[in-house]
Design a protein that fits this description.
26% helix, single chain, alpha+beta, 167 residues
Length: 167
Amino acid sequence: MVLPKKNKEVSREDLTGFARELARESQVMTLATSGPEGPWAAPVYYVFYRGAFWFFSSPASRHILDGRRASASVYYDGGHWKKIRGLQMTGSIRPGGSGSATAFARYLRKFSFIREMAGAGMYDPVQFGERFGNRFFCFMPEYVLYGDNRLGFGFRERVEMKEGKNP
């Protein structure tokens, strides 16, 4: 874990690095949507790959049915207000497409219990989804605020999460 520079201006590159590091290290993202039944929030396990947050969900779940527009958050609380860091995002939810096989391989590496559920030789997100009644989706952030109380109470700055090609 890289700590922010004390008593020194933090560069945009540093902030982007802190944000991507948080996205890679965290495991749970809360997705928020709104539909005919009102607002809804759901936590999902995810893997961060190519600037997107990949996750499995039932195609019949509210956060998928409520539409493609969503907001999401990822955070680390650290047990003290001075250590809170997080991402606040708006974007869209899309079915897994190009890049999903690589994202799924990373998902399996990150979550050993999923690897155990899938069994040996399971490397296809479509096959896994069919077996468990889920599909692979990705949240594509369009607007991201990185907050970090280590840099000052209530510190927030817009960052770019894209890495390489988009999925």
